[in-house]
Amino acid sequence: MVTSGRNLTAAEMNQEAGRECLTCGKILRGRSDKKFCDDYCRNVYNNQLKAVTHHLVRNVNHALGKNRRILDELAGAGSHVTRVSREKLLEKGFLFKYITHLYTTRKGATFFCCYDLRYLPLEHDWYLVVRSGEE
Question: Which residues lie across from 120 on neighbouring strands?
Answer without folding.
Answer: 128
